[in-house]
Amino acid sequence: MTRYGWIRLGIVVGAGLVLEILCRANIVSRLIMIPPSEMLASAWKILATGEMKNDFYFSLVNIAFAIALSVVGGFLTGLAIYSVPLLRSTLEPFLTSYSAVPPIVFYPMLIVIFGLNRIPQIIIAVMFGLVPMAMNTINGLYRIRPVFLKVGRVHRVSALASVFRIQLPAAAPYLFVGVTLAVSYSVIGVISTEFILSASGIGHQISFAYDNYDNRTMYGLVVLLLAIATLLNSTLRYYSQRMLQRWAR
Question: For the chain, where are the alpha helices, taking DSSP H only?
Fold first, then answer.
């Protein structure tokens, strides 16, 4: 682990100790928050008993589909918009203002069309994650230095080789930012839709526990959800850094 990793871990542990003291001293009411040690114990119980394995499977499948569609669809959308100047001039203002309209407002319409199943949830999550990926793809391709492409033409690099050996490595930092945002927003989209109308999933179980004042289950699930999100982002960060180092050689 790097020095910055240890610093981040120290901040998390320190914050957890402060919350533990505040909760144990009844400065923070148990109706609002339970001690972090009890959160971890509840999370371990949920994992050990496997009582919600079907909900985790449901959510993780939705998240996997949403991430794949957001990343691939966002990249292809950004590439298409970048390749056609007229499309770029026309659609880019719409993409930049897209975040002003939360995709969750389309959920009732999607339920009417597709029914109360996983499809509306995946579509909403893709609507969250696709646009950041597309915008970062456009920005990355747009910021490629022209001299790179000129050197490729001088050495008679084919169009396909130019894409994989010049353009993608040059745009990689922006593409990885787009992937990170797409992953984060896809998770947010899936869990938020499960809060609203879903018969299963992590978000549904958190909402159910909240409505029934079951703080132990609610915070245990929140801890597990944070662990999943942290694992996804850490893995993505690790492989993106390795890929950038490889392309920089």
Answer: 3-24, 36-49, 53-83, 85-96, 107-114, 118-142, 146-154, 159-162, 168-196, 202-211, 215-247
pLDDT tens digits, residue range 122-140?
Answer: 999 999 889 889 888 888 8
Residue type, 171: A
Residue 25 domain-assigned? no
Q: Within a domain: residue 34?
A: no
Distance CA 126, CA 114 (A): 15
**If 0-12 CB within 10 Å is exposed, 13-18 middle and 19+ buried, where does residue 32 land?**
exposed
For the segment 211-228, the average pLDDT, to the nearest whole number, is 89
Tally the domains of the chain.
Answer: 1
Q: What is the DSSP string of 93-144?
A: HHHHTGGGS-GGGGHHHHHHHH-SSHHHHHHHHHHHHHHHHHHHHHHHHHTS
Q: What is the mean pLDDT of the chain?
A: 83
Domain limits for position 74: 51-247
Q: What is the pTM of this model?
A: 0.84
Give the length of the chain. 249
